[in-house]
Amino acid sequence: MPGTLPRFPSLPRGVTMPALLNSLPRGINPPSLPRGITMPSMPTLPSLPSMPRGVTIPSLPRGVSLPRAVAMPAVTEAPRRLLQDCCSVLDHQTPGGLCGCCWALRPRYKRLVDNIFPEDPEEGLVKANMEKLTFFALSAPEKLDRIAAYLSERLTRELNRHRYGYVCIAMEAMEQLLLACHCQSINLLVESFLSTLRLLLEADKPHLHILATNSFVKFANIEEDTPSYHRSYDFFVSRFSEMCHSDHEDLDTRNKIRVSGIRGLQGVVRKTVDDELQVNIWEPRHMEQIVPALLVNLQQHSQNDSGSPAEQTEVCFRELLCRAAYGHINNAIKPVLMHLDSHSLWQGRGFAVQCFQIIMYSIQSQHSHLVIQQLLGHLDANSRSPASVRAGIVEVLSEAAVIEATGSVGPTVLEVFNTLLRQLRQSVDYQLTGYYDNAGKHKTSSIEEKKLQDAVIKTIGSFANTLPIYQRSEVMLFIMGKIPVPGIYPALGSPNSGSNLLTALPSSFLEPLLSFTLMEDPEIRLLVLSILTSLIDRRHNASRLTTARLLFSLYLKFKIKHDVFVFMQHAQRLYRHVYLASREENSGRSHYQALFTLLAVLSVELANEEVVVDLIRLILALQEMTLSNQECLSVFNRCGIHALCAAFLNLLSQLGPPPTLHQHITQVIESREKDAPHLLPEVVFCDKPRLPEGELKVDEALLFIQSKICEALAGSSYSTHCERFNTPYTPQLTGTQTRVTSHPLFSRHVHFSRSVRGIWGDFRDG
Predict the structure, then answer these.
(1) Is the dihedral of CA 188, 192, 195, 201 positive or negative?
(2) In angstroms, what is the C-alpha Rg of the chain?
(3) Residues 578, 615: contact at Cβ < 8 Å?
(4) CA–CA separation, 197 vs 190, rounded Å?
(5) Would you list the DSSP string of 336-397?
(6) pLDDT digit string (tens) for 595-632?
(7) CB neighbours of residue 503 within 10 Å
């Protein structure tokens, strides 16, 4: 058609065209080319018709090009089309007509990108050309977005053609560009990079998933200098979590996919946890995906396989927890509890304990009490669960308390013991009724509840060991208030602030505790005696006195300290209750042995002249009680008290008094061995005691005489206190010594009190 230039076909690579500038009409100045860019030669074109007279085209400023849609009604069609094509070439855009298929006229960044791909994908990335592309990207960072977009386009095209070798090359090129351009211009690359990773992760090829994950991990390790506002990692959290649950039929492939998913989650955490502008990884919707994905692989623990998903999971889980701030702990722990519930993993000492060991060792120490509170709340929420579940939670609590061991369990110390004691009481109720729910539908066994009670007691002891000394007496008082045997003691007052086991026991605690020595139940009385011994025995001498033996070695070494002022204000109360407890009719061998241990510990802890004299007065009063007809004591009780007196005086005479006292004690013991062995502990405190028939009669030669004891102590430091022997010891009876009779709730309280047996030894001062 007239006025229209013919289209030129694209030329092969290397064929040049003559210069275009000379063929343009006079007065038309094309824009200048960037430095280093030359115009290829073009073939000679027919001369253009001259412009109509009076019509001129203004010259363009340097570096400015005309847009494609410039309307020039006064110019004929052919010159206008030619001018548009020239402007497109000079602007590095693909023209629609003249040179759209000419590789030599494509933008330089595209040619540089194309050059990194070899003829054979097995040859890998062309390193020399990659260096040129990297240099160009660093020299012109404003073109990074175009480079990344074109790389993503090439990768998508190769992926659709299943040319996976070129896909790997494209990803390698993107990774190198990311590493080289991690300055302020990295944001120009990230959008195309992340969209490419999404494309690979959505494919159905496991090796592409692994390839994308490795690239994401490298990206996550880059520290960026500039903030980003428009990124979203929700897809990656979801996809990586899904990879952690892979059930691929091939075991090796499955493990590789799971490890990749774990590493991907680790990368997401690293990239987002410290950046306030990124997605909040601690939100429940993210934690509910990440934590279960990690725990599923943590269960497959294998110490022999260093590359197993479990090993990588533990590393990722620890890194996640160590980065958790105060407000994030609960969101991280709640999915753990839910996972253990849904998969029934509380039973036994296994995965649950291992999981919380990792948690307690990983989080910051000042946040550990939050984990304890979460576990306590979960224990309350499972009050109607089987005993095995409750026992598993309590076991985890015990291990967590041991690991914490910071001297405090947070701001709510009493809340810990309150929850545990409430669970102990509920377990006792379940044990008595046989059901662990109020409706009576779910049965439980006494054995299971007993295991739970033992676990609770162990946990209370574990928490007690984490407390500072000054808090232990308050906690003991609190625990005593949770054993409400009606009528046995008055209402407890407020704890004596500032008291501790090293200075004094609170009276509000000691009085109700001593009142338990008057209970009809012999097991409760035995429990109280062991508690008192544990509280007084601060130097662990009781372990040397487990049984009441008559003959003690003169070289028996006790840790003695004259610390009389510590317990002196409570000594008379202790003497009184020892006297009253020894005359209980249903006392057995273990009760008298416990009384001997308690008196022996008292003599060691309070070893001074005044205390020794008072203890001898107490023993003489016990001996006199066995001889009185007013006391309704059995033959075994009378023989047991005589044996107790002999054993204790034999020990006491070796702890400091003059040798003459020991001579008198030894003389009486030898007489008993000859004429009345039933008055000695070896005969009475055995499985089959040999007791006399009928009424017990004791000659004066078999008794410890007060006058001879005073004579033995004369001339020593004890003589200043011997005048106290002139006043026989008489216990001062008060209203608190009234014995408790049967009560509708008595059985329940007795069972609960028996369950507390193992708590008290952990409160002693080491």
Answers:
(1) negative
(2) 46
(3) no
(4) 10
(5) HHHHHHHTT--SSSSHHHHHHHHHHHHS-GGGHHHHHHHHHHHHHHTTTS-HHHHHHHHHHH
(6) 998 888 888 777 678 888 888 999 999 999 998 877 78
(7) 14
